[in-house]
TrEMBL record, chain A:
Organism annotation: Leptospira johnsonii
One BP term from GO: thiamine biosynthetic process
Listed transmembrane segments: none
Stored PANTHER family: 2-IMINOACETATE SYNTHASE (PTHR43583:SF1)
Signal peptide: none
Alphabetized GO MF terms: 4 iron, 4 sulfur cluster binding; catalytic activity; iron ion binding
Cofactor (UniProt): [4Fe-4S] cluster
Keywords, alphabetical: 4Fe-4S, Iron, Iron-sulfur, Metal-binding, S-adenosyl-L-methionine
InterPro entries named in the record: Aldolase_TIM, BATS_dom, rSAM, rSAM_sf, ThiH, ThiH/NoCL/HydG-like
Domain Biotin and thiamin synthesis-associated: start-end pairs: 259-361
Protein name: Thiazole biosynthesis protein ThiH
Residue ranges that the Swiss-Prot or TrEMBL entry lists as coiled coil: none
SUPFAM superfamilies (UniProt xref): Radical SAM enzymes
Automatic annotation (TrEMBL), chain B:
Substrates-to-products reaction catalysed: [ThiS sulfur-carrier protein]-C-terminal-Gly-aminoethanethioate + 2-iminoacetate + 1-deoxy-D-xylulose 5-phosphate = [ThiS sulfur-carrier protein]-C-terminal Gly-Gly + 2-[(2R,5Z)-2-carboxy-4-methylthiazol-5(2H)-ylidene]ethyl phosphate + 2 H2O + H(+)
Gene that this polypeptide is encoded by: thiG
Keyword Transferase: yes
Subunit structure as annotated in this protein's UniProt entry: Homotetramer. Forms heterodimers with either ThiH or ThiS.
Protein name: Thiazole synthase
Pathway note: Cofactor biosynthesis; thiamine diphosphate biosynthesis
One GO cellular component, as annotated: cytoplasm
Localisation per UniProt entry: Cytoplasm
SUPFAM superfamilies: ThiG-like
The species this protein was found in: Leptospira johnsonii
InterPro entries found in the cross-reference section: Aldolase_TIM (IPR013785), Thiazole_synthase_ThiG (IPR033983), ThiG (IPR008867)
Length: 378, 270
């Protein structure tokens, strides 16, 4: 389990490891990348270092090359569907936090149908379903029936819900769920305990090992991420790279995807955000691309139009589009959103931008037929 | 070399990363000298060549088992059943729990059978053996063997005994990159420079037999392989040819120029 690796070094030591890198380390890492090899972990750490900013254009060129080589000129599209904003956890930075006195809603079966119809009509065949952290209202039975409805519309279904045991993940896979997303929010234990005040989400280690449980259960895709802005970004990037690399080596049948969302305004009064400037954010993405060239890099509509336009295909390979973060938001309804989105373009406008850049928007990249093959032999 | 750079296989530590095979030596004395000058701590012997129950066995008497791991191998086995039988026999005769698994139904090129090797590995691991399988350089097979609980994987550099060096480069790179267990490049290494190359690639160890056993001077050749293995390892860990081809960022940067525009029009992210 990842926690075994996690325990070997503290968050502040991880940060120091990044900051101990020098110019020669950065140049050596770039040399490795130019020679056609993926970076090793130490080389990855050196590109996170602020001095690597001087080499940003070179990192960008390399990122374009590697992304094209591994993913071609394509961008996979998905849309999130919020099934519920019920939440029993208190995460001080999140609009869904239990403490926030906002209207709560969980989609009924007919509402899931209505949402699905809207997304399907837009050409979307990959949906990411999300809930808050309420283990009772959006329980396994609720999720199973939701998936039963969704699979009549979509080829590919991923979940971004509260962490589960391996057995429950296996149930959802058997129902037709293909991908799992568990963002750690922050890998800094001190910050984690400060910002997660109550509920199941307080248990940091249970969350840390959720991707492992998903890997053991057999998800085809697993997404990990860190919410930049909660704690020291160098420590976060050390951990995120370490975690993704560990998972990709251990669960070799599973594709690992990485996301690097930055904090956005949300309901509540959280004012402790650590500012991560654009240059730094972009440098982190480039470093990830050169370290893990086969991992999908996911970008949501949290980022600006300008940022998304430039980063599509440079390191970014998977993008959400026209997102609503409120349950029932696509088919009309109240404003119950989790956070503010920045890129509000319609799917047609967004895909036109991609095509103008010479990128092919991919709406379908999976088929339900994969679920009808016999169990693995090993 | 740093203290912490020991090779660890199935919980046992090794300073040397050069494994030695024992077939083809002209005499027990030549083998003994090669063992000594190679500095090896792992010597593999074909079960069919030795009498494990006899303390006078010519090969076994040359191996100081206090210092060196005797690694019995199943060479000659044509399928999983034969390999498992040989391994069990070896354990019964005091050969211990370690086994280099070789399943080579093809008597000409001695290429390993991946299907039978995996089958045998799964059985032997369950029976408590530390299994070190000799295989073709197949990255997916390596992952299956790792999942089966093998202690290492031992992909070939080129067909055994050919001295062709590393002909499986692309696949070895993938294996080394993906493996969570030690990778020992086995077979085909004909020159010390081949061993150095394998170590520079990131292999954890190399196994050499023919190139040393049939050399004009096996002891000196074994010494050359020792130095080459160490040099390759040091090179992997500490050297780099980090001659940067960097271009300094400038306002005219075509890919990241948009960030410059952004900084002239600063606004908070949140």
């Amino acid at each position: 389990m990842y926690t075994e690796l996690f325990d070997k070094i503290t968050f502040s030591e991880a940060k120091e490891r990044v900051l101990s890198k020098s110019k020669i380390d950065i140049e050596s890492a770039l040399h490795t990348s130019h020679s056609g090899k993926a970076l090793n972990f130490e080389e990855y750490l050196s590109l996170i270092h602020p001095i690597a900013d001087t080499y940003l254009e070179e990192m960008a060129e390399l990122s374009v090359d590697w992304t094209k080589k591994r993913f071609g000129n394509t961008i996979s599209l998905y849309m999130p569907m919020y099934l519920s904003n019920e939440c029993r956890s208190s995460c001080v930075y999140c609009g869904f936090s239990f403490e926030n006195k906002i209207p709560r809603k969980t989609l009924t079966e007919s509402e899931i149908h209505a949402e699905s119809k809207v997304l399907y009509s837009k050409g979307i065949r990959h949906v990411l379903i999300l809930t808050g952290e309420d283990y009772s209202i959006t329980n396994l039975e609720y999720l199973r029936s939701a998936v039963t409805i969704l699979k009549s519309y979509f080829d590919s279904i991923s979940i971004e819900i509260y962490p589960l045991d391996r057995e429950k993940y296996e149930v959802l896979i058997s129902e037709g769920v293909e991908g799992l997303v568990v963002y750690q929010e922050t890998y800094d234990p001190e910050t984690y305990s400060k910002y997660h005040l109550r509920g199941m989400k307080k248990n940091m280690r249970y969350r840390l090992d959720a991707p492992d449980r998903g890997g053991l259960a057999g998800f085809r895709h697993i997404g990990v991420g860190s919410l930049l802005g909660l704690s020291d970004p160098y420590g976060e990037m050390f951990r995120l790279g370490e975690h993704a690399h560990y998972l990709s080596k251990k669960y070799w049948r599973t594709t690992i995807q990485i996301s690097l969302p930055r904090m956005r305004p949300a309901e509540g009064e959280f004012d402790k955000t650590i500012f991560v400037p654009d240059r730094e954010y972009v440098r982190f993405l480039f470093a990830l691309r050169l370290f893990l060239p086969d991992s999908g890099l996911v970008q949501s509509t949290r980022e600006t139009v300008r940022m998304r336009n430039h980063l599509a295909g440079m390191p970014i390979t998977h993008m959400s589009v026209e997102s609503r973060t409120d349950p029932g938001g696509y088919s009309g309804g109240e404003e119950l959103k989790q956070f503010e989105i920045e890129d509000t373009r319609k799917i047609e406008e967004f895909t036109e931008m991609l095509r103008k850049k010479g990128l092919d928007p991919v709406f379908k990249d999976f088929d339900r037929a994969f679920f009808q093959v016999p169990d693995r032999v090993s | 070399m740093a203290e912490s750079d020991d090779l660890i296989i199935a919980g046992r530590r090794f300073k040397s990363r050069l494994f030695l095979g024992t077939g083809k030596f002209s005499s027990g004395a030549a083998l003994e000298q090669a063992i000594h000058s190679s500095g090896t701590e792992v010597v593999t012997v074909a079960l069919r060549r030795v009498d494990l129950s006899s303390p006078e066995d010519d090969i076994l008497t040359k191996i100081d088992r206090e210092r060196i791991l005797l690694l019995p191998n199943t060479s000659g086995a044509r399928d999983a059943e034969e390999a498992v039988r040989l391994a069990r026999l070896s354990r019964e005769l005091g050969g211990g729990n370690w086994v280099k698994l070789e399943v080579t139904p093809d008597p000409v090129y001695l290429l390993p059978d991946p299907i039978e090797t995996l089958k045998a590995a799964q059985i032997l691991v369950k029976e408590g053996f530390h299994v070190l399988p000799y295989i073709n350089a197949d990255p997916i097979l390596c992952k299956h063997l790792e999942e089966a609980g093998c202690a290492t994987v031992m992909p070939l550099g080129s067909p055994i005994g050919t001295n062709q060096g590393i002909r499986t480069l692309a696949n070895l790179e993938i294996i080394i990159e993906q493996s969570n267990i030690p990778v020992v490049v086995d077979a085909g290494l004909g020159l010390p420079s081949h061993a150095a190359q394998a170590m520079e690639l990131g292999a954890d160890a190399v196994l050499v037999n023919t190139a040393i056993a049939i050399a004009k001077d096996p002891a000196k050749t074994a010494y050359a392989f020792k130095l080459a293995t160490e040099a390759g390892r040091i090179s992997r860990l500490y050297s780099n040819s980090g001659i940067s081809t960097s271009k300094q960022a400038s306002a005219s940067s075509p890919l990241t120029g948009f960030l410059e525009e952004e900084s002239r029009n600063v606004h908070g992210v949140i």
